[in-house]
Amino acid sequence: MIKIHQIYPDETEGISTLAHIFQLEPSSLMIHDVEHFIKVIGQYFSHRNILDHNFKVLSLLESIENKGFIIMNSYKIYGHNRWFCALTVLCSLKNFKQFNNWDIVLRKAIRIFKPSDQFSIYLLQLIVYVIGLSDIKLESKTLNYLLQLSHTIALSPLKCFRHYANSISKKALTRSQLENVDLGNLPFKGISIIDINICWLKSNSIDKILMRIIEMFLNNIENREGGILYKTFLDKFDINFEQWKTIVWNEFYKMFIHIDYDSEFYQSLLKYWIPLTVSKYQLNLYNFAYHTSIPKLLKAHILLESRKRGHLIQSSIKEIQFLNSCFKKQETCFVALQIIGCPVKKGKIPPDEIEFKLLQKYLNEKTEILSSNELKIIQIYLVRLKDHLKFLNELFRQSTSLLQGSRSDLGAQILVIFCKTIDLSNSNNEFMTRYLESNNIQLLIEHKLLTEIDNNEFSKLAVLILKNLQIFVNGFPMKFIDNLSPELSIQVSNQVRNVYHAIASINFPQDNVKLVKDIYTELNNIFRDNDSFEATKLFKAVLLFDALNQLSKYYVLEECSQWIWHVALPNVANLLQSQISQKQSNQSIKIIEALYNNICEFCMENMTLLSGEESFSAVIHILVNVIQNSSMRRPTTISATLLKHIFCVNESSLHKLKICLMNITLEKLNFCHERQSLTLRKNPESRLIIHALCSSDFTPQKTFLQFSLNYLINLLTNDSCPNATVASTINCIEILMSDNDLYEHTLKFAPRIILLCVQHFSNRNWIVRNACAQLEKALIDRFLGVKIGLNNRAKNLEDLFQIFPQLIRPFVQMLQQNPLNDSAIAVMQFFIESQWSLSPFRTEVFYEVQYVFLKIFQNFIKENSSLYGTFASRAYISLCPEKSLPYNIENVIQFIRDNFKNIQKKHTIRNFILVLKELYRKYTEKPRNSQEYSWLHYQLSLLTNFLQTNFHLEQFDFLLFKVLSLQDVIKQLENFKKQEYFLDKVWLHNYIPFIAFNNSLAVLPHMILSEKIPECLQIKVLQILLKRSLKEDCSATLKMLIFRGLNGEFTSKYLQISHFKLVLFIFEQHSEIIEFCDRISLSFDVENDIFKIFICLLILSKQRKRSPRDLLFIKRSVRIFESCLFSADDDFIEIFDEMLKYLYQMVTCVCDKKRLLNMALILILEYGLYNLISFILNISIPNSLSALTVLLDDAFLRNELKRREKKLAEKQLFIKNN
User: Fold this and answer.
1) So which domain of life are we looking at (predicted)?
2) pTM reported for the whole predicted model
3) CB atoms within 10 A of CB 606
C-alpha cells in the first residue's frame, strides 16, 4: 500500500507513484484502496500546483480518456484502464475549493458514471459535493444531465448507489426543469414524486389526473406512487364530499362493477384509495357507499377502515344487519371478523353485545381451525374484554365446550389465546384458572395427544398450562413414541415435535437429561443391527430424532452428538443410496429421507460439538457423496445446506479443504456424461457444491466466486467442450447468478454471461438448450424484475442497456446474422419479457437504439413466416409505447390493406394478425377514452370489410372477435348445426366466453339460453353465469332462469340439471332475493317434472306468506320426493339431498317430518349424504357416521317430532281443505 507521506518533493518519485497507480487492474482492488489512491493523486496535484491551472487538469483528463496516457514533465505515463485512471484523477479534485470549472467536471463525471461498477460511488460523492457548494451556478443543460443521472442511479443494481438519486434530483429539480419534462409518464425512477405531483396537478384536467391514478393502481409497479398522487390530489383540490361524489366516485365506480378480487387494482383500493378517502371524508364514504350497488366486500372494507380510524365507535342497527349478512358469505366473513375485533381508539368503550353474539355464532359454525390472522384478531378482541367479565367468561365457557366436544382443536386454539392474553393470576379470573389447572383438563390433553395424531393445537396448549407434570412421569414420553411409531404418517412426526417442544420447555433440566439419555439408548439399539432395518423401526428412529431435535435446544449430550456425527449420519447416508439402488418401495425411501433430514437438522443445530479437521473432512465427504449420487431433492438440498453451514462456521480452518474440493468439482465438469444417471435436473452434483463453497466465502474479495466464475466462463468459450459439460456449466452459473447474497459480486460478469447464454441457445442439443432457457429466465428475473401480469416487469430492456451498454451491439449483430440461428430467438425473448416505456430522460442514443431494433423486427414480420417471425411480432409489440398504440394499430391495418397480396405470397399473414391482436390486448389493459375505442373499432371494421370483400375471412378470428355484434353471433349460433366448415364451429366455441362475460346479465340468458342454441354451448354459458353470479346482481338473471325452468323445454336431462344447479346456487348465495320471490305467483302445474317442483319449492322457501294452496303443494311434494328417491341416479341424488332441507323447513305435519327424516336416513346409509342433519343442527358434521349417530339419538328425534301448538291451526286448516 502506498503511503501518502511517501510522495516526496522529488518529481521522479511522484511520477513513479502516479505511474504505479495508473497501471493497477481495478478488478484486483478493494473499494477502500481506491479511496486511498484518490487522496494520493490529490496530494500530488496539490504539491505540484497543477490545480491552480484548471485548463491543465482538464487536458490531462482528455488525454487519459482519448489517448490512454498523460505527459507530466516530459514523462509519458500510460494507463492500464482508461476509465479507472479518469475516475481517480477526476475524484481527486473534490478536496480543492479553488477549482472553478465545476460545471465541466460534473458533465465529465456524469458521462463516465457506470451504474454497475462499485467504484462509481466516488463519482457520486464528487457530484453530491459539487452541487452542494453554495456559490456554484449550474447551467440548465447540466441540470438536465443530473436528472438523467438520477434516473440511471435508480436503475443501478448496486443498492449503495440508490440513496444518492434523491439527493441529486432535489438539487436539479427546478420549476423550469419540470416544464420541459413530459409529466404524463409519472412516476420517475430516482426522483421524489411529491414535488412533481403538485406541478403535474396544476397543468392537467381532473379527468386526466383521475385516469392516470386508476392506471397506476392497476399494477404494483406504480401503485404506491398512485397512492401518493391521489393523496396530493385530495389535499390540493380540497373538494367537499358532494363534489367528490360527482368527480371521483363516478370514475372509480366503473371499475367496481366487474372488479377482480385477485387483481392489483383491488389491492390498491385496500392500501391507498379507501384509507385516504376515509381519512378525508370520515363516515360520509360508508354512509354513501352502503346504498350503492358496489360489491359487499368493498363496503365491508370501507366500514373496517372507518372503525380503524375511530369514526365509528359503536354500531347501529344498520351496521349490525350488514355485519350479519357479511358473516353469511365466505368472501366477506373474515372482514366482518376484523370489524368486530378492531380496537377502539377513543377511550374504553364496552364491547357491543350483539357483535359478541355474532362472534360466538361464527366460532360455533367454524368448520376448520382458525388461521393465524383470525387468531390475531381474536387476541385483540380479548384485550378489549379484559374488564368485562360477563363476556370474558361466556367466551371462555364456549372455548371449553368446544375443547371437550367435537371441535377440540378449535377450542384449544382459543384457550391458547386466553393463556397468552388474560392475566389468570387475577382474582377475577379464578374460574378460568381452576379449570386450566384441574386434573380433568390434563387427562384430556394426555388422551388427545395419544389418540389424535393430526391435532397439533393440544401440544401448544400444553406448553402454556401444564404446570403439573404428572402426565410426564411413568415413562409417558417414550410410551408416546412407542404408541405412534406404527402409524407411518407425517402427521405423527409433526405431533411428536410439538409434544416434545412442550415437554422440553416445561421440564426440569435433570428430566431433560434423562430423556436425552433414554432416546440415545433407544437409537443405539436400532442402529446396532444394521442388517435388519425395517420400515417401522426406521420410522421410530425418525420420531426419536424429532424428539431429540426439540430437546437439544435445552440440553445436548456430547456422547450422543459424537455418535450421531460418526455413526448415524454415515449409516443413514449409505442406507439412502442402497435403498434407491435396490428400488425399494416409495414408503421406505420416504422414511429414510425423513430420517436423513432429521439427522442433518440436528447436525446444523449442534455444529460446535464437532471438532478436528479429520472429523470435518469425513462429514464433508459424506455430504458431497449424497449430493453427487442422490436422486432425491430433499436429501440433496439439506446436504448442500449443511455443507454450506459447515464452511461458514469453520471458514478459516477448512480453507485448504475448500480449495481442494473446489478444484475437484470444477475438474469434474470436464468429464460429465452425456446421459445423466440422476433423475434430478440441473446437475446438482456440481452446482450445489460450487454454490455452497462460493456462498460461504465471507472475504471481501470473494475469491472462490471470482475463481469459479472465471473458470466456468472459460469453459463456455471453449468450442471443443462436449454438450454435457456446457449444460452443467450453465447450470452452475445460473445458481450463482440467482443468489441474492452474491448479486453485487457477479455484476461484472453479467454482460459476458448474458452473451454466452444467448450464443449457446443456437445449440440444438436438448440439455444445453434447456440449461440456456433456465439461465435466461434467471437473468431476466434478476435484471428486469419478476413478471407482473403478462410480460410486464419493473424494468425493461432499455434499463438493462443503460446498465450494460456493451450488450447493444452484440444483440444487433445476432439479429442480423445471415442465415439466422436460434440465438436470435434468445435475444428476442429479452425484448418480449418487458415493455418499453417513454422515459422523459431518455437520451438520443436510446431513441436510435429503439429505432434500429424496430426496423429489424419489422423486417422479420414482413419476410419471415417461421418461428422467427412469431417471436419478432411479440418483440415488436414490446417496443411500442402505450401512447403510440393507436398509431401503431392504424399503421399495421394500413400496411395489410396496401400489401396483402405480397403478404400472402410470403405466408406472413399470421405475423400481422398476431401483431394486431397483441397490440389490441396491450391497448385494452388500461382504461381508455370511449372515443378512442370507437375510432379503433372503426379501423378494425374497415379491415374486416376489406377482407370480407376480397378474401376468405375464417383466418381472421381476432377481427371477428372484436368487431361482430352480439346479434350477428346469435344468428351464427342458431345455425350452428348447419355449419359445414369445422373451423367456424371451433371459432363459435371460443367466442362464447367473450359474449358471456361482456354482455349485460339482463340480456344474456334470454338470447343465449334458448332451444335453438346447441346444448354444449348453453352449458358453457351456464358455467360463466355461475362465475358472474358471485360478483354481480343476479335478480334479472334469476327471473329469466326461473321462467325458463318452469316453462321451457330442455334437450337433455344433463342440461336441465346444469340449469337447476345454477338456480340453486344463486338462491343460496344471495340472501337479498326474498322480496323478488314474494312477487312471483306460482301455478303449480308441474306435477310431472321434479326439477320444476324443485324451483317452486325454492321460491316458496323464500316467500314470507303462504296460502293454503301453497301448503297443499308442499304436502304433495313430500310424497313425490319419496317416489323419486328410489329411482334416483348419481347425477340427481346430490341435488335431491340439497333440496330436502328446503322442504323440511316448510312442512308442518309431524308425519311429513317423519317421512323426510326417513329419507335422510336412507341418504346417509346408501350415499353418505347428510345435508339435512347439518341444516337442522346448524353445524358442520365431519362424517356420515356422526350424522347417523345424531339422527338415531332419542333426544334429537323427540325435539324434532314434538307437536307445536302454533302449527296446530295450520294442520287443521290443511285437513279441512283436503
Assistant:
1) Eukaryota
2) 0.74
3) 17
